[in-house]
Every structure is written in structure tokens, then in C-alpha cells.
Design brief:
Layout: E1 5-6, H1 27-40, E2 45-47, E3 57-61, E4 76-88, E5 92-98, E6 101-110, E7 113-119, E8 125-131, H2 132-145, H3 156-170, E9 180-181
Parallel strand pairs: 1-9
Antiparallel strand pairs: 2-3, 3-4, 4-7, 5-6, 7-8
């Protein structure tokens, strides 16, 4: 089932989330619905707060970002109760976007390598290291479960330049290509 994506301005996007238990109700269905929602919106990652849930769950699929023949360099994973253990390397800029903030993209500085501990969709504990674009997408989605949006990483001037566009998103004065839930009654 395709779920509405919560738009910039929704309080759930700014809240730190709660860990979930192995027996979380209908977890398998929720994960399947989140994959469907993410692909419908042409995303490469989706966190539970973006569908209105304050839980530590996010999905990442960077396989679709890879060049033809290089798909094995990407990842398609579910991250439950994730903790970034280490970030390393020289920060690098990369243009990021967000399904909760449609039509806005900006360079964000992040470290290129992370070590992360998480439970997979079978609630099996994993510890892995990721780098490059894989690490970046994980960091972006991880920020969501900590109540942080990519716009918070931007320089003050860039934030000021985006203020009017962000307000239009917050108030639903946009026409996204996928279902969204805005911070007021009466819109999709």
C-alpha cells in the first residue's frame, strides 16, 4: 500500500524516534509498504518518520543509482534501530534531495565512510562499513530517525535562499508527483 509522505513542516520529521521490538505489529507489512511508497516516489531511501511513524526504521536502495553493469556496488537494505558507530574520512559535498522536501536539492558535506550497527528485516544484528554514495544515503536516512533534515546541514545563506520555497512545501502550496501529507487540513 502506498502511504502518503509527510512534508516538511510536519512535527514527526523533527522528533527523535523510538527503538522498535522484534514483535513490532505488522513490521513485515510496514516494510513492504515503505518499499512500495519509496519506489512510487522515485526515492532511494525512506525513513519511518517520513510516513508519520516515530520509530527507528529506514530503507535504502542505491542499486538503482549505479551505472549499468555496476549495480553490485549499490545496496538494498532495511535498517532497524541503527546506530552509527563511526564516521571517518575527509568531508565531501554531494547534492542531496528528500522526498519530504520535493524539488529542493543542495550540496551537503558528509564524511565518506561509516561503520553502523543495525538489525536487518529478520531482526538479525549486523555491523557493517559503507562508503561513498552508500554511506551518504544511509547518513541522510539516519538523520531522519534522529529528527534531522538535510536542510539543517546547509550554510546559513543557502537556508535563507530556500526559506520561501520551504514555506510553500510546509503549507502545501506545491503539486508533488506523489501523495503527501501537509501540515494543515484540507490538502492531500
Amino acid at each position: 500500500m502506498i502511504m502518503p509522505i509527510y512534508a516538511y513542516g510536519q512535527p514527526v520529521l523533527r522528533k527523535e524516534t523510538e527503538d522498535i521490538e522484534k514483535n513490532h505489529p505488522e513490521l513485515e507489512k510496514l516494510i513492504a509498504d515503505m518499499w512500495e511508497t519509496m519506489y512510487n516516489a522515485k526515492g532511494v531511501g525512506l525513513a519511518a518518520p517520513q510516513v508519520g511513524l516515530g520509530i527507528r526504521l529506514f530503507l535504502v536502495d542505491t542499486v538503482q543509482m549505479q551505472e549499468e553493469g555496476e549495480e553490485e556496488k549499490g545496496i538494498k537494505k532495511v535498517f532497524i534501530n541503527a546506530t552509527i558507530l563511526e564516521e571517518s574520512g575527509k568531508e565531501w559535498a554531494y547534492e542531496e534531495g528528500c522526498l519530504s522536501i520535493p524539488d529542493i536539492r543542495a550540496d551537503v558535506m558528509r564524511q565518506p565512510t561509516i561503520k553502523i550497527e543495525y538489525y536487518d528485516e529478520n531482526f538479525k544484528l549486523q555491523e557493517e562499513e559503507f562508503e561513498g554514495v552508500n554511506a551518504r544515503v544511509i547518513q541522510h536516512e539516519y538523520d531522519h530517525v534522529d529528527g534531522i533534515l538535510f536542510t539543517e546541514h546547509l550554510k546559513p545563506l543557502k537556508k535563507r535562499l530556500l526559506k520561501r520555497r520551504l514555506e510553500k512545501i510546509r503549507t502545501g502550496q506545491i503539486a508533488p508527483e506523489y501523495r503527501m501529507k501537509f501540515n494543515h487540513a484540507g490538502r492531500r
